[in-house]
Amino acid sequence: MIFRKSKTSDVKSIMKIIRQAQEFFKNQEIDQWQDGYPNEYTIIKDINNAESYVIVKDDEVVATSMVTFKNEPSYDSIYEGQWLSNNKYATIHRVAVSNTHKGLGLSTEIIKYIEDLCIDHDVHSIKVDTHKENIPMQKTLKKNGFEYCGIIYVDNSSERLAFEKLL
Length: 167
Prior knowledge:
Elements: E1 2-5, H1 11-27, H2 40-48, E2 52-57, E3 60-68, E4 90-97, H3 106-120, E5 125-130, H4 135-143, E6 147-153, E7 159-166
Parallel strand pairs: 4-5
Antiparallel strand pairs: 1-2, 2-3, 3-4, 5-7, 6-7
């Protein structure tokens, strides 16, 4: 498996995985990614900002994520808790794994690769948020050493559970 920055030629494959995740959330009655987000424009923007990553296995994109080292404005205020640190951090967004590769630990692999990226950037904190009903992601985060920190609100005022891991 190869973890690499996404290319424009990956958009179709990434969107296929995103649509699978949207369908999964819908079937689980999780109100996440049900409003047309993320869309192709979002993924292209991530690629243009050099913040989109994929895992490729046998020449097939099997997982996707976004990581940024820029400040996340929605993380400036946290409720019913606090961040573990106020240091420079990376933020993970839009983690999704192909239906044909679920259950193989690829979300954990993504986190491990991002931890390496953070160390390369001399960043020792990773923050992430997820929908309160997205239990699979919460389990993945806790399994990988993330601690629940509180509640944040994203752009559309939706509540999200906030997690952080110190490296």
